[in-house]
Amino acid sequence: MTTIERKTSRGLVSGVCDPKFAGVLDAFVENFEQRGEIGASVAIMLEGRTVVDLWGGQTSDGGAAWERDTICVVFSCTKGASAFCAHMAADRGLLDLDAGVGKYWPEFAANKHGARVSMMLDHSVGVPGVRAELKQGAYYDYDYMCAQLAAEAPFWKPGTRNGYHGLTSAWTVGEMVRRATGQRMGAFFAQEIARPLGIDFWMGLPESEEGRVAPVIPYPPDDKARSTRIALACKADPMGPAGRFMLNSGGFNANHRAARAAEIGSASGVSNGRGLAGLYAPLANGGALMGRRYVSTDTLARMGRISVATHEDATLMIPTRFSLGFMKSMDNRALDNAENCSVILSEPAFGHVGAGGSLGFADPAAHLSFGYAMNRMGLGILMNDRGQSLVDAAYRALGGRSNASGAWV
Fold first, then answer.
1. pTM greater than 0.85
2. Which domains, from first to last, does the chain contain?
3. Measured between alpha carbons, how far is 100 from 403 in angstroms, rounded to an integer?
């Protein structure tokens, strides 16, 4: 491992990097010099050993230096942590993924005929949003959101199509874990995954850690943002799945203390590149790490297997592919009006993108886990050129030949 200290226009890039992964270092530096990065971290583990751990830039535009222990909101990367919890509960026989939701949450199942637990994970259960206007601070009130979703009529018959449950999965998946294990998602995650792995990843950030948080720098509401497929769908039908997802959030703001303190298992996790790579390390290595087994090999196989795929996601309005709780490689590069609507991994890989471009994933075939987190959001909900350049460099370091097929080979 080589110790790194390289100057950029945003300050130092520091950390360590195996010379084999020098291309990742080069891409990380180029992000600051050519792609508008402000502050970020990236980490890669190979066979459970750290081969890249880099951080750099600024915690805000013109602000303090991004340090080794700087953390930030990683948005939907949190879904990967939540899905890990659900699969762990299933692996222990506490949660049956094939059972009807009514076995655990009869109030929710009452008006959602045919809903199964697996549909809560793969975005096909039919409640990507709530039609009635949510109260201010709704997402910070777990019980309120559970009641709202239990009462909500589905936008489609559960299981007949999928539409990204970008925020509501915090409570659809979260309540499956709570009712199966007797613990709220944040407590279960901390006890069973984060602490044993020793990772800096929080689902419900303690106030004592607030001083380390780099605030989110939102993508501006410019013409590009207003012309995305999801933005056009919101304008055309504000009461549809995309509209309710994007327009009815009860004032959710990732830069508020209340958002980071809440256990929003779909959106408000706080971590960094190292924490994301560490989260996926056991899943990249047969379900076990450092002598501790987290899930069985059968469960791991199910975590990575595609559950739903569609030519038009009912919420995102693009083709999507999901396993139970995780994103799979999605190639929409040839699609019109779909900038930043892809994430190109290998076919065995699974993980989750966060809004604006953060990413964590496991590649069980390569025994690789990856994490990238940043403060400046890019356009869209999937990857932009900053994060994808790091993924591409990682696969090239492993001998990757091409991603022209839509997945790295």
1. yes
2. 2-397 (3.40.710.10)
3. 38
